[in-house]
Description:
This protein is mostly helical. About 90% of the residues lie in helices and about 0% in strands.
Amino acid sequence: MKMIRDMKIGKKMRLSFAIVLVISTIASIYALYSLKESQNLSQGLYEKPYVATTETMGICKDVSAIDGDIMGLAFTEKIAKYKGFAEEDFGSISKRIEKLDSCFDDRSKLSRLKSSVDELRQEYENVCTLIANGDIETVQAIATTSDSSYGKAYYKCVEDSTELYNLAEADGIKFNNDMKNTGVKALIVSIVLIVISVVVSLIVSTLITNNLARRIEALTIMADKMSKGDFDF
């Protein structure tokens, strides 16, 4: 402190402005860093949680639609129509699963879903074979019995797709919370840096003002004495 007090006023001003400039620069750099991090998080939100939630929800709908297609095959004569629907739904599931490959760090649940979809596909093909052979009664029994091979494959597929959707939803909630925490942290740090900058500016300005005031007061006293012919300083 003594070294600072002994400095000339010009050096003190340069030092004070340098301190304020450094703090302001740090605050600006941190703000830019926080903005970049927020952009990365926003991009990550679309690339993973949003895609995962959307596609897993779509798979749940497609699996349910396939069951409706099987019922259509079993109880209507529009065989070609419902076969077309079923092929579209299976194709949709395959495309959605491809999109999900990069969305989960733990792919065990996705692998189980792939296996259950393959089993459901096999049961669908068995139904088509029975229909081609004219065995509609067996198809109807399979489609309406929960413990049939088709029923087990369907409910297993429903269970796995629902579990994967719940996982995607949980990941999305966690990601959203992380984004909020990052934003709050950036806001707090920025406010702290701004407050520090303002406080330092006030302190330095007060010190410089007081120093100048003392010197001006001393000069005023000296001038007043000189005007009275008193040169004894």
